[in-house]
Amino acid sequence: MRKHLEAKSLQLHQERVTRYEQIHDLSAKKVDVTTIARQVGVSRQCVYEYLRLQQPPERTHIPPARQPILEPYKAYLVRRWNEGCRNAQQAYREVKEQGYPGTDSNSVRFFGHLRKHFNQAGTFKQVDPATQTPVQVPPKRPPSASQVAHWITFKEEQRLDWQKKYLAQLCEADQEIRETYELTTDFTTILRERQGERLDAWLQKVEEQGPPELKNFAQGLKRDYDAVKAGLTLEWSNGQTEGQVNRLKLLKRQMYGRGRFDLLRKRVLKRA
To answer: Is the pTM of this model over 0.70?
Structure first.
């Protein structure tokens, strides 16, 4: 499993290095950022990130598996158990004097494990140190898929450092996540900067390599293509009209449907 992850990490790193070289070569030829993003197949935000780099990105190495904090003291705890010590707090105080840096929860959990598996009919069995390992603390639950999806829609400056690092690790570890991240970031850039002229290219790219969820989203945009294109291009909107309609309905509800037109007209004009 670890060899597979290492091979995948190497492949993704090579792709990032190639992308870095393409972006910097085009930038050296005075090609604008929008054209670079279109040619390389990434978002403008991604182009800016690569241009800020002074050298190709380094590969994210998979950290080695950590040794349980109680491991160096396992043999001593098992020996104390075999000697008749059943008090986890006492055992904790003893290993604490030997330099154990953790809390008593690990020793309590370990003694609970021994008590569960080596206590039959009130008789405690001897334990073989070579076959026992400390019970590790359950890992912290990673962010949910909805949380990660929410981070992707953020602007770069809105993300915390640890969120940026987590997203970078996800994109490097999984190609589908990386493509989804780039497509989503590209669309939010089109939306925020009113780059409606890029909508057709984005829809085509989603159709070719997007995940099913983004393809469904793109199909919904195509069904109302003219309105979507106008909304992503023009600075005008019907927000003011919708606001006035909502205000009119609110005034009518306040009169419980009993107000005549002349009274409603006076209330609308007075509040205007």
So the answer is: no
